[in-house]
């Protein structure tokens, strides 16, 4: 918890132990920390430099903890001051960047990023820098950028960044496809499915896009800045998003059903069927029996007045069981 103040786990543990006993010599503290005496003394010296501990003047060889309210308060004040300076520097650099980019040259509107590491790093930066929304089109072909598997997604989602992801139906057949999609839905991401997406694509806050390049000698991508091309890519995503079907599963039985309407499990079954899964795959994903799935599908068809599963999909959309943006 105190890492932000420059203390690692060992130093924090040493300070906590010293606070709990008030004062201790090196051997005693080493036993409490299950560390060697040399490492314990080094930790105490580090705490001393931070003003968190001092050697006792009354009893040589013993160390005492500085009062946390005073010592940690001073470190927090210093850290806030450093953050304020960093924020000011960032604001000045951003203003300088905006001034320089007021009339960008055509060649500056598109960057070419080459190399798997460089592409993955740029994708990470886009997510960490997003403040509003990240949109992605994901294909079933392996790539440096998947649009789903990245720790940055969890961090961004935790900051309130909205994720909208459209995946190709073939993603559901990948070995970890369903697991990753389930994790994405668990983070509150909105996921939709189509037969095919036109290209891999990531758009952050409508101001930056990443387009992986196919058939290159090594992994590469285009980074597109604010321009007509970026507007075109954003429009492409919105078009695919409107036509895609929403995917939902993993929360069976949570939502109360309307009278004589489908319950939460019914809607999950329907969602997975519309995503292209077989009855067997739906049963496995939702941990249901195959006959249970088939009975629920039959009931849904009766509720919708449908005689075929194709009609069921159409009626489900019309009745609002499957929500999708209308043009």
Structural notes for this entry:
The protein is an alpha+beta fold and 327 residues long. The chain has three domains: 1-103, Winged helix-like DNA-binding domain superfamily/Winged helix DNA-binding domain (Arc Repressor Mutant, subunit A), CATH 1.10.10.10; 112-246, Endonuclease Chain A (Endonuclease, Chain A); 264-318, Arc Repressor Mutant, subunit A (Orthogonal Bundle), CATH 1.10.10.10. It has helices spanning 9-21, 26-33, 37-49, 68-100, 116-129, 151-158, 177-186, 228-243, 264-274, 279-286, 290-304, 309-318; strands at 23-25, 53-55, 62-65, 110-114, 133-138, 162-168, 190-194, 201-204, 208-212, 220-225, 245-246. It has an eight-stranded mixed β-sheet, sandwiched between helices.
What is the fold's blueprint, element by element?
Blueprint: H1 9-21, E1 23-25, H2 26-33, H3 37-49, E2 53-55, E3 62-65, H4 68-100, E4 110-114, H5 116-129, E5 133-138, H6 151-158, E6 162-168, H7 177-186, E7 190-194, E8 201-204, E9 208-212, E10 220-225, H8 228-243, E11 245-246, H9 264-274, H10 279-286, H11 290-304, H12 309-318
Parallel strand pairs: 5-6, 6-7
Antiparallel strand pairs: 1-3, 2-3, 4-10, 5-8, 7-11, 8-9, 9-10
Overall mean confidence score, pLDDT: 77
Distance between the termini: 49 Å
User: What's the story with the biggest beta sheet?
Assistant: 8 strands, mixed
CATH fold-level label of the largest domain: Endonuclease, Chain A
CATH domain class of the largest domain: Alpha Beta
So, CATH architecture of the largest domain? Answer: 2-Layer Sandwich
CATH fourth-tier homologous superfamily of the largest domain: Endonuclease Chain A
Described by the principal axes of the CA atoms, the overall outline is elongated
Number of domains: 3
